[in-house]
């Protein structure tokens, strides 16, 4: 099987995005360096955009792009585009196949994130290269591209409960300094304030905690660190985000949004 050489980060996030985003160019394909080679997938044709952020294929199947937040997804018109699908053969409970679509060898999800047309949302059972996706999203956010130019999508300050509470029952991205990590038999609590009944907290099931520690997200590493986290906000003794995937928590520099 022929493997497309992995491009540099500059190629992925630089000029190539501007000139070959959704074109039918026959130029040499640029592959996501972390993704399965597109040649391993199935050739398909996109028929239209479906509801709830899905893409419809000409054979009637429905595709959900893995790793993306459907509520914020802004799909361009890809009608008639040839693509390669790499993903599950079994539909999810919504009748959609989850996976990646490649257009001219380029990962569509990464391209959408790089243009500010989608937020990254890690989900259970999706084995993706989130580092590349998060980098694409972060660059778009810094450049205020697409949805990042809208105040409603701004990263919420985790030190300000009111700012996070505004996203109640919805997906949000928050950032702040971790003040305390508490490990109990059932839950690992990551606190951004000193009053747990009022302040912002991340809740991780204890049975999932070893997966976080395996990626370097230990209690010792997190306490005092600046992090960016994402998930659905609920109001339980203050704003809370329950997290099951390590990719949903990033350690960041203090200057990052």
Give a verbal description of the structure.
With 257 residues, the protein is of the alpha+beta class. 18% of the residues lie in helices and 27% in strands. It has helices spanning 9-13, 15-20, 108-114, 130-142, 161-165, 209-214, 219-222, and strands at 42-49, 55-57, 62-65, 82-87, 97-103, 106-107, 156-157, 171-177, 180-183, 187-191, 201-205, 226-235, 239-242, 249-251. Strands 7, 8, 9, 10, 11, 12, 13 and 14 form an 8-stranded mixed sheet that branches. Helix 3 packs parallel to helix 4. The termini are far apart. The model is unreliable at 1-33 (pLDDT under 50).
Which terms summarize this structure?
8-stranded mixed β-sheet, 18% helix, alpha+beta, 257 residues, single chain, 7 helices, 5-stranded mixed beta barrel
- Oligomeric state of the chains in view: single chain
Taking Cα atoms only, what radius of gyration do you get, to the nearest Å? 19 Å
- Summed over residues and divided by their number, the pLDDT gives a mean of 86
Give the total of beta strands.
14
Count of separate DSSP helical elements: 7
Strand content: 25-35%
Biggest beta sheet attributes? 8 strands, mixed
In brief, what are we looking at here?
With 257 residues, the protein is of the alpha+beta class. The chain has helices at 9-13, 15-20, 108-114, 130-142, 161-165, 209-214, 219-222; strands at 42-49, 55-57, 62-65, 82-87, 97-103, 106-107, 156-157, 171-177, 180-183, 187-191, 201-205, 226-235, 239-242, 249-251.
């Amino acid at each position: 099987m022929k493997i497309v050489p992995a491009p540099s980060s500059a190629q992925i996030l630089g000029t190539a995005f501007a000139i070959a985003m959704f074109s039918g160019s026959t130029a040499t394909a640029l592959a996501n360096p972390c993704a399965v080679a597109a040649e391993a997938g199935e050739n398909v044709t996109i028929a239209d955009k479906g509801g709830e952020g899905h893409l419809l294929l000409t054979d009637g199947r429905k595709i959900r792009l893995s790793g993306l937040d459907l509520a914020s997804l802004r799909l361009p018109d890809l009608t008639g585009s040839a693509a390669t699908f790499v993903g599950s053969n079994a539909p999810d409970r919504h009748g959609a196949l989850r996976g990646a679509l490649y257009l001219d060898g380029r990962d569509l999800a990464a391209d959408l994130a790089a243009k500010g047309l989608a937020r990254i949302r890690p989900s259970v059972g999706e084995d993706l290269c989130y580092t590349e996706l998060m980098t694409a999203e972060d660059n778009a956010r810094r450049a205020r591209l697409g949805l990042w130019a809208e105040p409603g999508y701004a990263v919420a300050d985790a030190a300000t409960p009111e700012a996070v509470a505004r996203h109640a029952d919805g997906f949000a991205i928050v950032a702040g300094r971790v003040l305390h990590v508490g490990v109990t038999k059932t839950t690992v609590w990551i606190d951004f304030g000193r009053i747990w009944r009022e302040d912002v907290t991340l809740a991780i099931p204890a049975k999932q905690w070893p997966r976080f520690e395996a990626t370097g997200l230990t209690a010792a590493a997190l306490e005092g660190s600046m992090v960016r986290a994402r998930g659905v906000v609920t109001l339980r003794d203050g704003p809370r985000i329950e997290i099951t995937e390590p990719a949903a928590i990033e350690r960041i520099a203090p200057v990052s949004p």
